[in-house]
Amino acid sequence: MTEPTRSRSPRPPQANAARGITLVAVAVIIGALLIWKNPGTGQVTASPDLHSATTTTAAAGGGQKAATTTTAAAPTTAVPAADLQVTVANASGVPGAAGTITEKLKGAGYAKVAALNGDKNQPTKVFYEGKFEADAKAVAKVIGLPATTVEPRPPEVAIEDEGKNAQVIVVLGDGFTPDNPGAGAGGAATTVAG
Questions:
Q1: Domain 81-172 class?
Q2: What mean pLDDT value characterizes the chain?
Q3: For residues 90 and 138, is the Cβ–Cβ distance under 8 A?
Q4: Which parts pass through the membrane (predicted)?
């Protein structure tokens, strides 16, 4: 003879839900007690722009304010300087300006730099493709240009021939001289020809 098999009835879903809520509540209470008893000596949190950090240090003793400091971190570059493709277009009217800046960039570790002529009547700008903004700012710094000259490449700025794959395009515009790089910076962008 075979004995009939007994089946267990499963617990009602309400009991499982209540158990889960109870466990979460206990964990929150334990966590709050641990924080209350040992607040630690400080915390570091990243700000929303991910280029600075805020550090808060708990004050010793009661009633004192905590010290807070914010520091800006340098933006990270997308590629090493030696791998960045840079095109320098001379639209300044100063003969050899693009060659001079190209050599300056090469001296700073930028190995893939091309020099060519650009259309006149343009401001000095440093344009970048996609994710290369930090790289463009680094290039501008080497040249001695203000960060305000760095912008995303607008569609009307085009480079012919060897500059088609440039990740950063430097336009040496009206008023630019290698001795005074900040002159001629700013203004509206136009077209760069090869």
A1: alpha beta
A2: 73
A3: no
A4: 20-36
